[in-house]
Amino acid sequence: MGYIQRRNRRIFLIFLFPVIVALFATTIYPMLYAGWLSFRNYDLAKPFIPRVFVGWANYAEVLSSGPFLHALITTFKLMAITLSVQLVLGVGIALLVTQKLRGMGLVRTLLLIPMMISPVIVGLVWLFLYFPELGYLNYFLSLIGLGPVSWITSTDWALLAIAIADIWQWTPFVMMGTAAALQSLSPEPYEAARIDGNSRWDVFSRVTLPQLKPVLVSLMFLRAIDAFKIYDIIFVLTKGGPADSTEVISLYIYRQSFTFWRMGVGAAASFVSLIIISVLITLFFKSLQRGQASKG
Amino acid sequence: MDKPSTRQAILVYTLLAIILIVFMMPIYLIVSSSVKPSPIMFQKPPAFIFPVTWEHYVDLFTMRPFAKFIMNSLIVALGSTAFSVFMGSLGAYAISRIRHKRINDVAFWILSMRMFPPIAVVVPYYIIFKTVGLLDTPLALIIVYSTANIPLTVWLMKGFFDEVPTALEEAASVDGYGLVETFWRITLPLAAPGLAVSAVFCFIFSWNEFLFALMLTGSEAQTATVAVMSFWSSDAVQWGRIMAGSFIILIPGVIFVLTCQRWLVRGLTMGSVK
Amino acid sequence: MSFMRTVALTAALAAGAAGAANAEKQFEGVELKMLGIGDTSVTRLAPIVGEFEELTGAKVQIDMFPYPGLIDKIIIEASSDKPSYQLLWVDSPWVGMLGEAGALEDLTDLAKRDAEEIGLKDIVPIQLQENTWQGRLLAFPASGMIWSTNYRKDLYENADEMANFKAKYGYDLAAPSTWAQYRDQAEFFTRKAGDTLAGETLEKDFYGNAQAFSRVAGAITHDYFPIMRAFGGDYWDPGTGLCAMTGEAHVKAAEFMKSLVPSNPPDYLGLMWDLRTGYMERGETALSSYWSVRTVRLTNPAEAMVAEKGLVVGYAPSPTADGAPQPTYTGALSFGINSKASDKEKEAAWAFIKWGTSEAMMRRFAEEGSGVSQFRKSILSDPDLQAKYPYYGVLLSAQENAKRRIFHPFYQDVEENFGIELNKYMAGETETALEALTTACNAVNSRLKIFPEEMRLRWIDDVPADVLKD
């Protein structure tokens, strides 16, 4: 036990401590400031409004706000669509591009391009594609006798349209992470599995997938966090519209913090959303650990 | 994994061809719009054959110091990537190896840095950077992006470090390797694909970020993304210039990814030599 | 002796030259930065700021940022005690917010002092009024805007179309003077592919009208407000200073706007500024009202196909409710000075504004090509330029009777809330216009109610510009 404790301490000091210090130093002031704001009536654009302490009023307002709840639900809907599709599609494409065939490096690089484009610009590009009349997408659909679809101009389709743009941009993220993990897997279990005469699907589900799991979990974590914060694409594509069909949490926070300049409410909403995503991730964590324990 | 049969190869190529067509359509749009004359930009049906014009590219470089803005983007993205991958790997290794019941809390705290909605911290960052004279410098953006990139690297690398068998490290320590040496010589090379992936993701995030880049920079440190978006003015979205700019800023990114891929492959061969 | 004389002469000359240089280059060493945007009010000036440096010694740097997020950046900049930017680009509806926050330097005295030099009397008065807050001039116009109607004149003068229109609606086809006529004409010219338009068979659908119904950047409110005002609606209750946009006129205006939907492209809910004006620029709609900063594109073949296609565009003032003249809806894109800049910087910044908006500069822009929506009478009334830019006539005459657009410190709240609610109503998510308008008004009022009534009344008071008084 003594050895492990000593080793822990040394690893902590050499490896973890610098990271904690760096992160702490660069985030403590903004976080404290945001925390301070969240208890205040603070309008940056209107200095004549007294910037008084308001207690928990900002939090109470956020928690009882219909638009906030609506934004929360919309965010989760969007996350459910994008994350599941990105996971399946990303792993599927990763399996294809890690085949030992010519040209795979090129294919992989090409498929990464969507990620290289800033989300604000992705929004503009998809705006181009989506216009019912002016856009390319409906033109192509019309060639095969479909459509026209009111992609971003109907309340039924807009959220899906945002999801498609997000899936297009971030599937490569899952694909690349998975491909890297696939290539670093050790070959032995495969050989053993094949000798046992298992089908391809069996090999994938019993050998590959369990080995990929830690990386996939990490990737989905990161996607979940970023998807919860999705902002740029929507800001450009629909700004929350039509009506309020694509209103997400970040847009709510943006509108409160900047457009309405109610920075206290914006900060309070930020902390509320931080807590919500934290709780969800912890629950996810727990269920994962339980899953692992039951397997072991 | 060994080489697929011809039938399998045909299947793989066919599927990839379909995927590529779908995924490349918006890229085609960027490229074609960047050389399309403005008046026919939104013609219906879309014009596929048209007189090619280079005016959008010319405008991009004559109306803004665009080359400088690309350099700014590169400095910011490379700076933040290098710092974040370094720090993140250290943190990830510690979290992967330390056996302590509170280690998950630390990991969670690090991750929460990325969960916080960025909008709420724009103004405080503006205030600090103004006070210390870092406003409108690449360093300001490097710092802000690192607060998001370090957690990302920690989480990705932890997955990769978990996969490195501790038996190897124990063997190294028996051979007389110290803690740092073991990490540097044994563990890190085995997690090289993870490093490549983390670097790519950090780079991409820093390269693409818009909100902080808009608020914390002026003419000195403006990034290419903000410069491209600045062709969205009060009366028009200048699509041609935006698409030309989007295409140009793809190039350094793709080069970076290609470089990392080579690194990724080298990491793999190093791994299999073991 | 001669040596001494030479020395003395040289010294005297040197002193004189230095003195002259001092007088000429009075801002040597001053560096100015403008927090700007990439539109024509700035882009025409940005490449030639070197000329200003040559004249005055002051170095000017114009940073161009995207419109989305620009006001946020300006507010953050204005909240800082040590400015990074001495010059600020201002969209006129922001004047109230920036003015009440004390972010902009009062230019009234400077403008009065230099009235001759800047040709104060030459500037269309409403363009100065657009930039005032509580009667004080806080920014100076660099581009003027009016809301006007653009129509396909070639269609309106086609004999068949004229005859058919008269037969169907009972009056002559001409640029609409009332909104009812506007709708008739929008409806009349909406055709399906295969129908005939001006004697030719259409290959694709043709739309009578293109208006902005999009929420992005508040576009829908820009299109709603002129209609609302024409129907007799005001933003504010003159008795309480609260939002009053729930009256009969406001409801009628929203219902009217919705009645234009069938004549609009199927994209209508997503149409924002240039996507809408694009229809007119390609000649794909008969009629479209919008800001004159986009009208100026219609004569430029590099920007608009109508010119190239040989189609003729007509320009007319925005319609009114009953055809009787009503104040034109105006706006301005302007330059202001950061109130926290140093005195020297302020003087230099004012010199720059004078230089960049002078008659000579504006004439130069007009002669070099279209692009700037002009605001000087001398230029708008110039016969040569009027021939080159046929919309100059409307720009000038429409502003004789004009009323500025909304300028309230809570403008952003109005634009955002009404953008959401009107868009919901147009999308059919909200049943009635009254419901939509009430929701939006309540949201705005919830913020206004906490202020004393006298403060609210002061905010809605359009005090005549001090610089316009004699």
From TrEMBL, chain A:
Keywords recorded for this protein, A-Z: Cell membrane, Membrane, Transmembrane, Transmembrane helix, Transport
Family matches, as CDD domains: TM_PBP2
Top-rank taxon: Bacteria
Membrane topology: Multi-pass membrane protein
Transmembrane segments: 12-32, 68-97, 109-130, 136-152, 260-285
SUPFAM superfamilies to which the protein is assigned, alphabetical: MetI-like (SSF161098)
Keyword match Membrane: yes
Record bears the keyword Transmembrane helix: yes
Location of this chain's protein in the cell: Cell membrane
One family name in Pfam for this protein: BPD_transp_1
Domain spans labelled ABC transmembrane type-1: 72-284
Family label: Belongs to the binding-protein-dependent transport system permease family.
Listed name of the protein: Sugar ABC transporter permease
Organism name: Albidovulum marisflavi
Automatic annotation (TrEMBL), chain B:
Membrane-topology descriptor: Multi-pass membrane protein
Keywords tagged on the record: Cell membrane, Membrane, Transmembrane, Transmembrane helix, Transport
Residue ranges of domain ABC transmembrane type-1 in the record: 70-260
InterPro entries: BP-dep_ABC_trans_perm, MetI-like, MetI-like_sf
Location relative to the cell: Cell membrane
Membrane-spanning intervals of the chain: 12-31, 69-94, 106-127, 182-207, 242-265
Entry's family note: Belongs to the binding-protein-dependent transport system permease family.
Protein name as catalogued: Carbohydrate ABC transporter permease
From TrEMBL, chain C:
A Pfam family the protein falls into: SBP_bac_1
Subcellular location: Periplasm
Keywords: Signal, Transport
UniProt-listed SUPFAM superfamilies: Periplasmic binding protein-like II
Domain of life: Bacteria
Signal sequence bounds: 1-20
Predominant location: periplasm
InterPro entries: Bact_solute-bd_prot1 (IPR050490), SBP (IPR006059)
Record keyword Oxidoreductase present: no
Coiled coil ranges: none
Family: Belongs to the bacterial solute-binding protein 1 family.
Protein name from the UniProt record: Extracellular solute-binding protein
Organism: Albidovulum marisflavi
Lineage: Bacteria, Pseudomonadati, Pseudomonadota, Alphaproteobacteria, Rhodobacterales
